[in-house]
């Protein structure tokens, strides 16, 4: 009996040992939870090479596995490289085609007539006035042309074109300083105020001026001090973003002088060359607008002097635009004029009228809707573009 008990216990021990042999390997092979950043094979529990692969998720309604959408890399904005400003006016000469109808084809055609009688000179005078040259400037130009043609006996198309070009360049006063003061010798950024009425393309032109400065190798910070138009700051930010410039802005309705002050301070901290400040242009309350502009200038001057004040004028308004200009020049020390929309229905002679009436040089002209269609003004190049090719029977 005792022997049977020993045999039974022996068999029981063998069975227990056999069971343990089956269980332990399975415990050893049980997959451990992966560490963060590790990828494992879900069947074997072994670590995989490379980044973890997200398992497809199941649609809650259908139970069908759905592939996870790919993760898109953040897009990096592509900065534009503005065209060099040198020679822009020559490249954009075709934009002055409408003015050429008055100057190149009209005036040169009249001057090329076989007989320059009083009726012809009256037609020449009317053509210049129609081109917005202004009455006083027109009389001076016609008087000099009459004298020159009488003394010199000029008749060929090329000679007449050269004669007319000389008189028009004189009327534009080529000796005026048309350079933009966009750097200082003190290491502090140059401050440029941009003023003008809404509708003249002021904010757009401000963005184009920023591109002109970047094209000339300047670093720029823009101040969105036109806080009365919500779209103005957004528009300015769009222009600045294309060339990698920074915009300082405030909430809608904020104090414009405060925004301008912050823009100059940011320009100093960033060590840029130029701070360009776009201002409000409402004329509904002339006194309020002028007081506001005066305050902006006083507050900005706490950092240093305003180096340049550019007045934006719409060339298509002709002589009427000069009245708007006087409103600004009475209060703000305007140092230069930017004449926009000169490629539309405007007459090229408005450049002469602006300079004579205001005594302020035209420094930039807008000749199209493109981002780089703003060109530094050069009297000789401008007249050459206006006149086009020599015309007349003896050209």
Automatic annotation (TrEMBL):
Q: Which residues are in the SRP54-type proteins GTP-binding domain?
A: 361-374
SMART domains, alphabetized? AAA (SM00382), SRP54 (SM00962), SRP54_N (SM00963)
Q: Which UniProt keywords apply?
A: Cell membrane, Cytoplasm, GTP-binding, Hydrolase, Membrane, Nucleotide-binding, Receptor
Which PROSITE patterns does the UniProt entry name for this protein? SRP54
In its keyword annotation, does this UniProt entry include Cell wall biogenesis/degradation? no
Pfam assignment, any one: SRP54
Q: What residue spans carry the region label Disordered?
A: 31-53
The gene for this chain is ftsY
Quaternary organization: Part of the signal recognition particle protein translocation system, which is composed of SRP and FtsY.
Main localization of the protein described in the UniProt heading: membrane
Q: EC class of this enzyme?
A: hydrolase
The superkingdom of the source organism is Bacteria
Membrane topology term reads:
Peripheral membrane protein
The root-end lineage is:
Bacteria, Bacillati, Actinomycetota, Actinomycetes, Micromonosporales
Supply the EC number(s): 3.6.5.4
Name assigned to this protein: Signal recognition particle receptor FtsY
Provide the reaction this enzyme catalyses: GTP + H2O = GDP + phosphate + H(+)
> What is this protein for, i.e. what is its function?
Involved in targeting and insertion of nascent membrane proteins into the cytoplasmic membrane. Acts as a receptor for the complex formed by the signal recognition particle (SRP) and the ribosome-nascent chain (RNC).
């Amino acid at each position: 009996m005792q022997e049977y008990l020993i045999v039974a216990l022996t068999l029981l021990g063998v069975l227990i040992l056999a069971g343990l042999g089956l269980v332990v390997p399975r415990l050893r092979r049980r997959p451990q939870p992966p560490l963060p950043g590790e990828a494992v094979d879900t069947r074997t529990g072994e670590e995989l090479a490379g980044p973890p692969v997200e398992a497809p998720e199941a649609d809650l309604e259908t139970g069908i596995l759905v592939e996870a959408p790919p993760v898109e890399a953040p897009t990096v904005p592509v900065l534009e490289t503005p065209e060099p400003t040198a020679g822009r006016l020559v490249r954009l000469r075709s934009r002055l085609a409408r003015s050429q109808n008055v100057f190149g084809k009209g005036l040169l055609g009249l001057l090329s007539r076989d007989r320059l009688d009083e009726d012809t000179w009256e037609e020449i005078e009317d053509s210049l006035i129609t081109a917005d040259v202004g009455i006083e400037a027109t009389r001076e130009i016609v008087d000099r042309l009459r004298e020159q043609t009488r003394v010199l006996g000029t008749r060929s198309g090329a000679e007449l074109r050269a004669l007319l070009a000389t008189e028009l360049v004189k009327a534009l006063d080529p000796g005026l300083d048309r350079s933009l003061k966009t750097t200082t010798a003190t290491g502090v950024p140059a401050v440029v105020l941009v003023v003008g009425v809404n509708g003249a393309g002021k904010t757009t032109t401000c963005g184009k001026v920023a591109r002109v400065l970047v094209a000339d190798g300047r670093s720029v910070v823009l101040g969105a001090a036109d806080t009365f138009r919500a779209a103005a700051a957004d528009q300015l930010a769009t222009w600045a973003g294309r060339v990698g410039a920074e915009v300082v802005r405030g909430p809608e309705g904020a104090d414009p002088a405060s925004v301008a002050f912050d823009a100059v301070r940011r320009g100093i901290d960033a060590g840029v060359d130029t701070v360009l400040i776009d201002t409000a242009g409402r004329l509904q309350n002339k006194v309020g607008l002028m007081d506001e502009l005066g305050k902006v200038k006083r507050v900005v001057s706490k950092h240093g002097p305003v180096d340049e004040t550019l007045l934006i004028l719409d060339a298509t308004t002709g002589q009427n635009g000069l009245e708007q200009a006087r409103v600004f020049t009475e209060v703000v020390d305007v140092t230069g004029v930017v004449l926009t929309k000169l490629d539309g229905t405007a007459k090229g002679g408005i450049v002469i009228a602006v300079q004579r009436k205001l005594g302020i040089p035209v420094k930039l002209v807008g000749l199209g809707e493109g981002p780089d269609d703003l060109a530094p003004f050069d009297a000789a190049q401008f007249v050459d573009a206006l006149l086009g090719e020599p015309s007349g029977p003896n050209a």
